[in-house]
Amino acid sequence: MIKVEHIGKKYRNKIAVDNLNFTVKTGKVTGFLGPNGAGKSTTMRLMLGLDIGVGDTTFDGKHLREYTNPSKVVGILLEAKAFHPTRTARSHLEVLAQAADIPTHRVDEVLDIVGLQEVANRHPGKFSLGMSQRLGIAAAILGRPKYLMLDEPANGLDPEGIAWLREFLRAYAGRNNGVFVSSHLLSEMSQMADNVVVIGKGRMVTETSVQKLLAGSGHSGVLVRANSIAKLERLIKEKGWKFEKENGGLKVFGVTSDEVGKAAHESGLTILELSTQSASLEEAFLELTAGSEEYQAVGGKK
Amino acid sequence: MINTIKSEFRKLITVRSTYVILILTTLILILFAFYAQGYKAPSSALFDSNYFFEQSEQAVLAVGLLGSLVGVLLMTHEYRYNTITYTLTASNSRTRVLLSKVIVVSAFAVAFSLFVGVASPLLVWAGIHAKGGLLIPQHLDFIRLLWHDVFVGWGYSILAFIFALIVRAQVGAISTLFLFPAMIEPLLGLALKKKAIYLPYNSLQSIAQNNTSLMHISAGRAVAVFTGYIIGGLLIGWILFLRRDATS
User: Fold this and answer.
1) Are residues A34 and A199 in contact, defined by beta-carbon separation less than 8 angstroms?
2) Which of chain B's residues have a Cβ under 8 Å away from the Cβ of A95?
3) pLDDT attached to residue A300
4) Which end of chain B, N or C, is surrounded by fewer C-beta atoms within 10 Å?
5) Looking at the predicted structure, is the pLDDT value of residue A51 above 70?
6) Alpha carbon of A88 to those of A123, A255, B76, B134, B170: distances in Å?
7) ipTM surpasses cut 0.90
8) Are strands A178-182 and A29-33 parallel, antiparallel or unpaired?
């Protein structure tokens, strides 16, 4: 487990990351969400000791510097284009393999995994963003690390690449590894992540499972349609439930479909539709981070 | 530690810039040693028994700055292309990373100065022979020549590396590397007058030049002065390397 305790970072007068505490569990994909400028990348750098700040991050109870070979503990992808443009993709990985005492044949293995074998001897300066991301993922998994920390790895990937990444990360976590991944592609994250850590303006917003986050969102509810909408509305008001009109029926919040169905039946209503509607991760995310965007388009403020 | 050193060495030999610098050095040597100092050597030079010795030292002084660019690029590429994130997370000690870089830059600098120090008199000899001239027997103090060439070549490289370690930005480090001996030291020299000889590049040049002029100090003293700058510079660079964020 990666345990993050009280980490923080201040740039002159601006607090970039403020007292964050969370865990990244093995066997799970943990998503890291936050609006632009929320401090996600800074947090990742702090966790790895790349940026100097306060707080503590331990990997299975030990600081990264206490491990003889940190590359076998955590693999990173913090920036897609983190390579020398005139060093071939293979040489780039060989340099990293050499530093981490990883046999050279592993370079070919990871090139195969990410599908870059054909361009291994090309200069990555001319790679597309998607190919660069794949090279970054190859670098991250080179040492077969127990943990992966990836910052926006899906950026620039085509739909096929995104689907591949999703399956790959889920499978990686499934082998009792921990995956910590930030992304602004919320629909992707909802399919990929088991847990999420949400931050806004450098502060903790929530740490929960995706399931709980969606269920607890104000956008989740029970959609019910009956033979008499007026009678149904009266019933829901009597019960004191919150609701809104939607798609020719009523969306009731804070109750289960069982409760709504039972109440309607007891009132003699004929139920035409009864379904649970989950909020999307995007709705839940926007609800949680409302007002914590660092940068906002003027048109967005009304 | 050995793996980190090997990795740093691999970085050095897998980028185009290292080879561009070596090719440029060879071309400059051919132009100046073979053509200017050999083929076009003044007739008085043919009767100078120290000609090879002087040419070897002058060559290291002339192209040392160019060779030192390799050390600058080894450090500044890390920040320019953000590979520093991989370098630092692959090791459990920043000090070890820095030490590995110093060792690799030093090893390259020694090999580079030996190449220049040996190639230069050979090219001079070839140039003189191509013209049909004949040089009188040469007096070569190999030990003295060896340590002068190696120390000056290493000095150029390690000083340049320190600039890169402190400045981090590629353009800034290269500008500092060229401006320091060309502009900053001469300006400081105006204020320091005779004591200007104790400035880093001046003291380094004193090692390679015969100390006949009043503006030179003995080679031993120059080594001591210059080593002081290197120790101080590395100490400052090391502290900054430990305390600064890896990315800015």
Assistant:
1) yes
2) 7, 10-11, 14
3) 43
4) C
5) yes
6) 4, 58, 19, 49, 21
7) no
8) parallel
Instruction: Tell me the C-alpha distance between B127 and A74, whole Å.
Output: 58
Contact B93, A99 (CB under 8 A): no
Query: How many alpha carbons fall within 13 Å on the CB side of residue B245?
Result: 16
Burial class (CB in 10 A: 0-12, 13-18, 19+), A270: exposed
Does B16 contact chain A (CB < 8 Å)?
yes
CA distance A63 to A126: 37
**pLDDT of res. A301:** 41
Cβ burial A208-238 (10 Å sphere, 16+ → b, else e): bebeebbeebebbbbbbbbeeeeebeebbee
Quote the CA–CA distance of A62 and A70 in Å, as a whole number: 11
Check pLDDT > 50 for residue A120. Answer: yes
Distance (Å, rounded) from C-alpha B154 to C-alpha B101? 13
Across residues A154-175, what is the average pLDDT?
Answer: 88
Distance in angstroms (rounded) separating the CA atoms of residues B125 and B37: 9
The reported pLDDT for the residue numbered A280 is 64
Chain A: give the shortest CA distance to residue B54, in Å: 38
Compute the nearest-CA separation of B93 from chain A (Å). 7
**Residue A192 reports pLDDT greater than 90:** no
In this prediction the pTM is 0.81
- Say if CB A120 and CB A111 are below 8 A apart: yes
Using one digit for the tens of pLDDT, what is the confidence trace for B28-81?
Answer: 999 888 888 888 888 887 887 788 878 888 888 888 888 899 999 999 999 999
* Residue-range domain boundaries for chain B: 2-243
**Cβ separation A70–B11 shorter than 8 A:** no
| Distance, CA of B93 to CA of A197 (rounded, Å) | 29
- The closest alpha carbon to B155, from B96, B227, B210, belongs to B227
Q: Is the pLDDT reported for residue B214 higher than 60?
A: no
pLDDT greater than 70 at residue B83: yes
